[in-house]
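Hi R.,

Here's the chain you asked about this morning:
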Amino acid sequence: SEMCIRDRPRNIIMCGIVGVVSTDQCNQQIYDSLLLLQHRGQDSTGIATMDGSVFHINKSKGQVREAYRTRDMRALIGRSGLGHVRYATKGAAHREEEAQPFYVNAPYGIILVHNGNLTNTRELEKELFKVDKRHTNTSSDTEMLLNVLATELNSEVKGKDVDPDDLFNAVKRLHSRVEGSYASIALIAGHGLLAFRDPFGIRPLVIGKRVKENNKPEWVIASESLVIENNDYVIVRDVEPGEAIFITSNGEFYSKQCSDNPQLFPCSFEYVYLARPDSIMNGISVYESRLRMGDLLAETIKKQISLGDIDVVMPIPDSSRPAAMQVARQLGIEYREGFFKNRYVGRTFIMPGQSLRKRSVRQKLNAMSTEFKNKNVLIVDDSVVRGTTSQQIVQMARSAGANKVTFTSAAPPIRYPHVYGINMPSRNELIAYNRDINQIENNFLIDKMIYQEVNNLTQAITQNSKIKELDLSCFTGKYITGTVTDEYLTWVEETSLS
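And the predicted structure, written out as tokens:
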């Protein structure tokens, strides 16, 4: 039986998720929502709808526009449904069986999508196999999360019909077993939609509502608020850390706190890079937080260089633009666009395979020589992960004629893996791991490297908000779930390479 348990890490993926309870067919709503969440994942996508107690599922590799044909959409019948887009880690990006949603047939039939990453998969896999007698057939921790939920719900209902308290008790027991980050949406066959968030609220999840002419409510739950606003819903609130939401197929709304000690520690990297700027998460405008990152980065820049040595400030498009505009404004230096972006190439730092990543940077950006020639350039990026992209950008700026290059990051040095759902798995892949600023400057062949301070990043995100703390683990090495040890990080690195 030991041979059936894989001693390998589950795939760490970045995802966008959406769930809808409608008074009409919901397939178009879900499709439109996934288009809005495409920036959160371009490797694969999936849609599931529920027609009474019957599920209809379509999963495919690639982006949303290329994944679904008219006949696929017509087959997705039902007034409730959910959808998913994802980026995957290396080795799993193109395996269609890893795509979400996942399904189990008992109790009732459950389909689930998940954004995040579980960190106690070794223990969970043994429990599921030996105690719960459940088998998982992929390396996705989403399949594991679904089986834990199904196990706990099955023990709660014991053959009777489900009610909201049964679901909430199952989620409460799930919280006690599962560690890591998870924002999840599930369909319970014949009953409704269940959504829940981990007790630290690491990954985002927002609720929206609209009322039709017949006064019946329609609901949407999604990773980002832009889905709600663009589909003419009104933002109700975020799903709270540890909370579970159940919406019946008729639109009745139930909620309950299912954690004994919920605490809000949202992922700081959502605000730095991952989320779209027109989203609001945990009551914070992503765009405004990025503007403040620029304001505070400018203060650090003033302390480290002579401003008379800088001719222009330039962003790396697109997510660093708000910060770069504020840096230029605060420093009183001209803001210029020197890099032109090819919008038909996906994000690079999460693309599988280093050689592909290197090649894609040149495909993605072009430096305009008229903006660089004989100038001292201050480049603003949102963050520096592996450094591969940044090094090539510096080379492009020099090849375009730049005299001096100062490289700045609106985020602090990323020195540790992000284990809660963003593909930064190996410490040795991170340019800032065990390196000081001088070593990074020498590696980049730049005149000066300036990073945001950790306390300034915190201030930029949390200012004027209810949030007291953030998940800053990739910058500080302090993992808020408290169970991510050096042994765990080493295991992830070693088994990912094998």
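The radius of gyration is 23 Å.

Let me know if you need anything else.
M.
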